[in-house]
Amino acid sequence: MKDKQVLRLHVPEPSGRPGDKTDFTYLHLSPAGVVRRPPVDATPSSTSDLAYSLIRVLDDEGQAQGPWATDIGTEPLRAGLRAMIKTRAYDARMLIAQRQKKISFYMQCLGEEAIAVAQAQALREGDMHFPSYRQQGLLLARDDVDLVEMICQLMSNEKDPIKGRQLPVMYSYKRAGFFSISGNLATQFIQAVGWAMASAIKGDSRIASAWIGDGATAESDFHTALTFAHVYRAPVIMNVVNNQWAISTFQSIAGGEATTFAARGVGCGIASLRVDGNDFLAVYAASCWAAERARNNQGPTLIEWVTYRGGAHSTSDDPSRYRPADDWAQYPLGDPITRLAQHLERLGAWSAQEQEATRKELDAEVGAALKKAESYGTLSGGRMADAATMFDDVFESVPAHLQTQRRQLLGNQR
Amino acid sequence: MQMTMIQALRSAMDVMLGRDDNVVVYGQDVGYFGGVFRCTEGLQAKYGKSRVFDAPISEGGIVGTAIGMAAYGLRPVVEVQFADYFYPACDQIVSEAARLRYRSAADFTAPLTIRMPCGGGIYGGQTHSQSPEALFTHVSGLRTVMPSNPYDAKGLLIACIENNDPVIFLEPKRLYNGPFDGQHDKPAVPWKDHPQAEVPEGHYTVPLDSASVFRPGSALTVLTYGTMVYVSQAAAAQSGIDAEIIDLRSIWPLDLDTVIASVKKTRRCVVVHEATRTSGFGAELAALVQEHCFYHLEAPIERVTGWDTPYPHAQEWAYFPGPARVAAAMQRSMEA
Fold first, then answer.
1. Are the CB atoms for B330 and B220 separated by under 8 Å?
2. Which residues pair with A303 in a beta bridge?
């Protein structure tokens, strides 16, 4: 009789822990320019190879390479670089404001700026993003969203457009195509599919863009969204931002060890791409490809953006307890701002001096906005929406039981 | 014209699909086939596949897409095939639909109606018989509605579709084809010739937040809804007690004024529902009645409910709170 094999539970581990050096070979990078660009009407199943390779445009010298390199001129790129620098300046200032207890909590997107900013440029006015909490670049890439108002949301003060109802960073900007952020992960992914279905039902031309992190793809809403998007051929871009870490949980615990997140899409009949998320040109090109498919009734595209969470998950997190302290510096796909700046410098459309001047200018702009926002109160300063407003917007109108409770709050027992 | 509750619900959706291009109807088996209970029969043929269609077996996906559609500007009416199946949609209902208006300060809203057949009496066992209304009334931001007859079913469903809040619309499936009073060994009574089965063909609404006095009476007040309205009526007939039966219709928000006025008049109160007892909506009703009517009460508030067990299959009629249990509670209230 054969001996019984003892069974073992496999629990994935990252390739680097504090004190080690991360082995980034697990990323399976492709050289810039080598991955093919299929026609926009490619069948989903034919994109299978693109779900396992990595679309890159910018090489290590900052040159645009291969079929995904599109000539959009230097002005949009300069605008994109500026928006990324602004996003980073905003995050840096808000982190300090949190430490100064002017805001209760903050989440930066250090290292991931290219993904939101380039996609914001690739989509049109009227399209609707369903973001997670690390896509502030979608708002900061626009010039019609007031920085002061955004910071008032962070401060939950009397000018907070959502009246202190949500944690900092849970913005809502319908007019800017930015859906209300939920702290419940993954829920917005299927809602984006519904919004896209509605646009198709109405014969509209607007598309939706869904956002999720690698960690939250383990939620059923993610898989449900893939099914519905495929079934109804919904005009939606399904973005998976794989920044390698979900708080302290490495992406292998979300199911990224022996496959890719992009590969989930192919199995569901969805065209799928795996793209260098720190490569502004690649993000822009892939977003345009997916948007065109959606607008042509060719249905959804899943895009895994391979990037790295440069900072802590949030101001309540300390990543040095679970990953090597210098991990971001070692990350092989670099810093999206440095890479685009290098590319523009090669084209003679940017310089180190301009970068420093731009950084200073935008930092001053954010600083001034912060000061202005503070003048409307901070969370610790007590100037916030009146407590009685907490009974508004539970329903369209305030029903009798909430009118009673509001009277009780205000000290009138009946 | 005469309608069953199924026909009345179908008529409500038909009227709204016809009046408002933003109304869409979907769910499992809802499209071509017309639903397992036939509530959407013929609607796809009439309004087309982009307005009335089948959905994958995913309650979370059905509700989640409906929220996105509602945020776009549509008025989705979705079906969860049995109330017992809504649990996979819990996060979307509780954390999303119910809170979208609040969390965005009305930047985005979710005007959607989620229909779900509920209640027992059809030998459906534990997965086709539940009455989960209290799980919804506990959530701020949701409306919870349950009609008890064809006229109310159509008028309430239209009111819900036109309302800008998310609504849970519970349909007592044992009432789909007739006013069942819990006397299960007697022949089924059809809706035909019932006064509340006379339903206008066109548009009308029954207001939300408004209870109806189903049976006026003076001896005690029964607070109930759905199938238990008829069970309570049978109990009043059996016991000879002149009960005033209040059909809540809108379970939450509640028409508290009608409840208080009746209990202050009769000075006795029996709460009846089919759902399990502990933390059921009857507990909320009892609490409200004692808060508002304590000094008028002549007797402890009685509760008649399903037992605190899963809904059994073979023992259905031992579980179901039938007229005998309701009559006994009425008797206790009168004798206290």
1. yes
2. A239, A273
pLDDT digits (tens, 9 = 90+) for A189-233: 999 999 999 999 999 999 999 999 999 999 999 999 999 999 999
Per-residue pLDDT of B208-230, as tens digits, reads 999 999 999 999 999 999 999 99
What is the C-alpha end-to-end distance of chain B, expressed in Å?
45
CB B243 within 8 A of CB A390: no
Q: What domains can be seen in chain A, in order of their start residue? A: 24-315+324-383 (3.40.50.970)
**Which of these, B40, B42, B72, B74, lies nearest to B55 by C-alpha position?**
B40
Is there a common fold for B5-197 and B212-335? Answer: yes
Beta bridge partners of A250: A245
Tokens of A32: 């810039």
Chain A residues in contact with B95 by the CB 8 A cut-off are 182, 184, 187
Mutation target vs A (from B95, B103, B255; most A CBs, 10 A cutoff): B103
pLDDT confidence tier of residue A413, bands split at 50, 70 and 90: low
Six-digit token string for B143: 């409306």
Cβ contacts from A onto B, under 8 A: 142
Interface predicted TM-score (ipTM) of this complex, two decimals: 0.97
The CATH number for B5-197, chosen from 2.60.120.10, 3.40.50.2300, 3.30.2350.10, 3.40.50.970, is: 3.40.50.970
- Residue A408 makes CB contacts below 8 A (sequence gap 6+) with none
Judged by CB atoms closer than 8 Å, whether chains meet at B64 and A227 is answered as no
Contact B220, B270 (CB under 8 A): yes
The CATH code for residues B212-335 is 3.40.50.920
How is residue A143 written in tokens?
């010039």
Please give the helix or strand (H or E) that residue A374 lies within, else none: helix A352-374
Q: Which residues pair with B170 in a beta bridge?
A: B116
Q: What are phi and psi of B305, to 5 degrees?
A: -145, 175
What pTM value is reported for the model?
Answer: 0.97
The bridge status of strand A208-213 relative to strand A128-130 is parallel
Going by C-beta distance under 8 Å and a sequence separation of 6 or more, which residues neighbour residue B183? B234, B322, B323
Q: Which of B99, B115, B114 is nearest to B176 (CA)?
A: B115
Cβ neighbours of residue B180 closer than 8 Å, sequence gap 6 or more: B121, B174, B188, B189, B227, B230
Give tens-digit pLDDT for A237-259: 999 999 999 999 999 999 999 99
Report in angstroms the alpha-carbon separations of B254 from A398, B163, B334. 13, 16, 26
Any idea what DSSP says for residue B182? S
Q: Which two tokens stand for residue B159?
A: 């009111």
Q: CA-CA distance, A60 to A297, in Å (whole number)?
A: 36
Q: How far apart are CA B166 and CA B114, in angstroms?
A: 8
CB atoms < 10 A from the CB of B294, how many? 9
C-alpha angle A247-A239-A107 in degrees, rounded to nearest 5: 35
Q: Does A125 touch chain B (CB under 8 A)?
A: no
Structure-block tokens of residue B278: 């502990």
Report the C-alpha gap between B174 and A129 in whole angstroms.
Answer: 43
- Which residues of A fall within a CB distance of 8 Å from B141? 394-395
